[in-house]
Write a structure and sequence with these properties.
Among the domains are: 135 residues, 3-Layer(aba) Sandwich (Rossmann fold), CATH 3.40.50; 98 residues, no CATH class. It is 35% helix and 16% strand. The strands form four sheets. A six-stranded parallel beta sheet has the order 2-1-3-4-5-6. The chain is globular. The structure holds cobalamin and iron/sulfur cluster. The site of iron/sulfur cluster (SF4) has 9 residues, from helix 6.
Length: 419
């Protein structure tokens, strides 16, 4: 049986974050389009060892983040020295297409479904692999997106303190908004592409994990579809986390009923809009993790201090601080390029933990200090593990209440909660 090695290169995590790894989603979706007569060996370098001597007929390199590029380049070079062809795909390949094309045999731009990746394999088998397969914005019909191939993951490695990590799934692709720090508008052409609800339900039912992460860009794009999706999810009793949800009472209430457990909510100011949004979620028993971008043009050091005070005041459950980073093909980068504010393009340092541009109202050093200030001060009185434990106790309670709790996890969770 011919063999494909599918590799997700490692990168430097934000040092302040709790050290855990989520199973990568892009690669296992791409894997679902690999012809079935290939054996697939999946290596997520963040948790698996990559052995260059193991042998493979072809390498698929999947890169999501800009900071994966330097390692992706090293991996590609080693395999190409061994005479094994390397095909790159994924979000970072699309965002850095010209650069990636220089270090692999073939770049694949776009999504793999509806025969797109199968055509590449057929060229490979016929000895006529091309340099570039360009399906960028030529999206496959959304109903051709099937379940991700989760069986290729080494599940036992996505465990933190004895607790199995969430499994990832998406109910839609694309996003119709165009926020300044985000590449999604470029990647998805501002088209919201919801999957048919029955396909989503079928995929959810097939996942042997009660705890999920709906990685859709935004669950605030189409109210009717959302309400139907949440209604269909209620009987499944899955518990899930997600990016922002449409901030309307009936939608949040339905999300909670459908098992929403906590939300990553972008917090960009100290307004009543944010305060009320967080309150609404919490009133429905949904935890909130603030995703806080530091260094926008309206912020100075005092602003960041006020933001941290505000998060504590509204009793947000968790906060993840990241430094605004000018990733390629985002509105903010276009502006900073014109203004000559980008300091360098050493992609390994584009981790969002390091300042790589000149902020408007602070020096880069002050912004860097304020980043550390934010992490330290938010977690000063209650550390990350304890806050995480509080969130976990909420999900355990929900599971106990509706009978979906898996008792096998009990001891691990007790240990976690008492740390
Ligand atoms: C889900 C997600 C996450 C998840 C990732 C979970 C995981 N383990 O996979 C979480 C929430 C953890 C996350 C974190 C971050 N993320 Co994020 N994330 C996304 C998001 C919303 C969706 C990605 C996804 O899964 N899509 C669904 C899959 C199915 O699509 P796909 O990956 O494109 O895969 C398809 C094709 O590309 C192709 N394909 C994939 N691989 C391969 C390989 C080959 C060989 C081939 C042929 C094809 C192929 O096949 C797939 C099926 O068609 C994107 C936005 C977006 N719209 O893409 C941002 C995005 C990728 N994230 C981004 C960022 C900035 C981050 C953070 C740095 C944010 C932060 N400051 O914390 C962190 C980094 C992690 C960390 N802290 O260390 C940026 C990347 C910017 C960049 N250039 O690096 C994006 C683009 C959003 C943005 N702001 O612009 N993220
Ligand atoms: S930040 Fe979220 S809502 Fe805004 S464009 Fe990106 S994915 Fe869409």
């Amino acid at each position: 049986m011919p063999k494909v090695t599918l590799i997700y290169p490692k990168w430097q995590k934000i040092p302040e974050q709790t050290e855990f790894h989520l199973p990568p989603h892009g690669p296992i979706c791409a894997a679902a389009s690999i012809p079935l007569h290939y054996a697939v060996d999946f290596i997520d370098e963040n948790v698996d060892e990559l052995d260059f001597s193991k042998g493979s007929d072809i390498i698929l390199l999947s890169m999501m983040l800009t900071c994966q590029l330097p390692r992706g380049r090293e991996i590609a070079a080693r395999f190409r020295e061994l005479g094994i062809p390397v095909i790159a795909g994924g979000i970072a390949t699309m965002l850095h297409a010209e650069e990636v094309a220089l270090f692999v045999d073939t770049i694949f731009l776009g999504e793999t479904e509806d025969g797109r990746l199968a055509s590449v394999f057929s060229d490979f088998e016929n000895g006529c692999l091309q340099k570039k397969y360009d399906f960028f914005h030529d999206f496959p019909p959304i109903e051709t997106v099937g379940p991700a191939r989760r069986e290729i993951l080494h599940h036992e490695r996505y465990v933190y303190r004895g607790v199995r990590m969430v499994d990832l799934v998406h109910a839609s692709r694309g996003c119709r908004f165009n926020c300044f720090p985000c590449a999604t508008a470029y990647l998805g052409g501002r088209q919201f592409r919801p999957r048919p609800i029955d396909k989503v339900v079928e995929e959810l039912q097939g996942i042997d994990n009660n705890r999920l992460f709906l990685v859709d860009n935004s669950l605030a794009q189409d109210k009717d579809w959302l309400m139907t999706l949440f209604e269909a999810m209620i009987p499944l009793k899955k518990k899930w986390i997600c990016h922002p949800i449409l901030d309307e009472e009936e939608v949040v209430a339905k999300a909670a009923k459908a098992g929403c457990w906590y939300v990553y909510q972008a917090v960009f100011d100290t307004s009543d809009v944010i305060r009320n949004r967080v309150k609404r979620l919490k009133d429905h028993g949904i935890g909130v993790e603030a995703a806080v971008l530091l260094g926008t043009d309206n912020q100075d050091a005092d602003y960041i201090k006020r933001l941290v005070d505000f998060l504590l005041e509204i009793d947000i459950d968790m906060a993840e601080f990241s430094i605004l980073t000018p990733f390629p093909h985002t509105p903010v980068t276009e502006r900073y390029e014109k203004q000559g504010r980008i300091l360098h393009k050493d992609w390994s340092r584009y981790t969002t933990a390091e300042v790589v541009y000149t902020p408007a109202q602070m020096t880069p050093d002050i912004l860097q200090e304020m980043y550390h200030y934010a992490w330290e001060n938010f977690y000063k009185d209650m550390g990350q593990s304890l806050r995480m434990a509080r969130l976990f106790s909420q999900v355990v309670k929900k599971e106990r209440d509706d009978g979906s709790y898996m008792p096998g996890r009990l001891s691990a969770e007790r240990t976690w909660q008492h740390r």
